[in-house]
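It is time I had a proper look at our fold encoding. Can you supply me with one protein entry, sequence and fold together? It will help me judge whether the discrete encoding reads sensibly. Leave the record below and I will have a look:
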Amino acid sequence: MGQYFLIANQNKQQFIDPFRLPVSEKISALLNSDLINTLLPYLIVGSQNRQYLKFKEAGYYTQKYLGAWYGDPVDLLGDYDEEEQSWIVRSEYENISIEISAIVFELKLDLMYLILEETESGSRCWLELIRAVADLDHPPASLLHGLKELFGGSWKDELYRRIG
């Protein structure tokens, strides 16, 4: 089966669970994931970066998480090698996987439209992520607009129908 990994910030007691995203938890797939490689820099960027203020105004989840992990150690924890620590993280830390995924829909509209195109082909993993992001307390307006373009006014019914 192999070892499964998660990404953890021990200082903030938060983690990203690749299982909640359309990303494999295996190390090679995790390190090569376009989604993870898109999201992690937003978490670890420092406020001294010239682009920081431009992004800081982009949306609710971008404002909340931009630079949130700056300066903190970030760990890849495996369920074999770091079994006890991985269990503690999963049971006691905040899982921010869906919230940080919302950043893609706030900032990376080209990627958002590629993801929405994947849903037309019935890609269940993307449909589930989109549903989870759309169900957040502050869903990105760009995502809601894209869903209305794709599925029409009854986008929520269509999204749930496709998930099954």
In short: The radius of gyration is 16 Å. The chain has a mean pLDDT of 84. Residues 109-120 form the longest helix (12 residues). The beta strands are 5-9, 14-16, 74-78, 94-95.
